[in-house]
Amino acid sequence: YSSFSYDITDYVKAGENKFKVVVIDNAGNESSSGEITITNTNPSLTVTTSADNNYKTSDGYFYSNSDIDVTINVSDTNGLASLVCDSNNSVGLEQLTEKISRPNKDSTSGITRKYIATNVYGLTTEKEIKYIFDITPPQLNTQTYKDTNGNDKPYSTIGGENLGSETLPWFKSADLQLNGRFTEESSGISEIKYKLLNDNSNVVSEGTIPSSKQTGGYETFKSTISGFAESILGKSNILKIWAVDNAGNESSPRIFAINV
Length: 260
Known about the structure:
Mean pLDDT: 91
Low-confidence stretches: none
Shape: rod-shaped
Radius of gyration: 32 Å
Order of helices and strands: EEEEEEEEEEEEEEEEEEEEEEEE
Number of helices: 0
């Protein structure tokens, strides 16, 4: 008897391929194998991340403020030849998870990471993930700016008074209008929160304040806060204000003593 091998890889195209082995001896006798069918389809490839449910931009980039865990599921009925990331970094077929580490500063733009699976016959499947790192919490702006007349105007006020003042004046009303803005240059504000406490640190009211996104990396807000009690024996109302952005970063509360 005799044995042989022949590489048919280059002859296998996409779809259904049929082959038959025919053997002819020196006397001209011929025999053939049964028909051999190879169905060649693109590999199955899915890529999921720990941030898939995070806030996304209109063009599909999700925001994250922490490491991103990536899970890759890949298979092919005929066998896999390779799995690469961004066409140059091999991802081991035996290790189908990876971690994208959070940087120490915000992303300057969206990042696209592409995964390419190739089967033994050269068919490929591509998947990509798109993400932006935002690790910076929003900041309440208590600075001042110059108006058209050159006068200093506060960005944030309560009862018309500058929240950036070292000491706020006494007020005459239990209802005070709060105006201001938070700086948020990346994912945008998810919500602005406040909490009003009396002189015994009991919560009088708390809630969220609607905001309006502006060009230039900030959002403005306006709300009337009610329930300020008369300050007796020098005991002040305490107002806390903070914000959470769409990446989940939460600013430290700014605390103000309000006397009525």
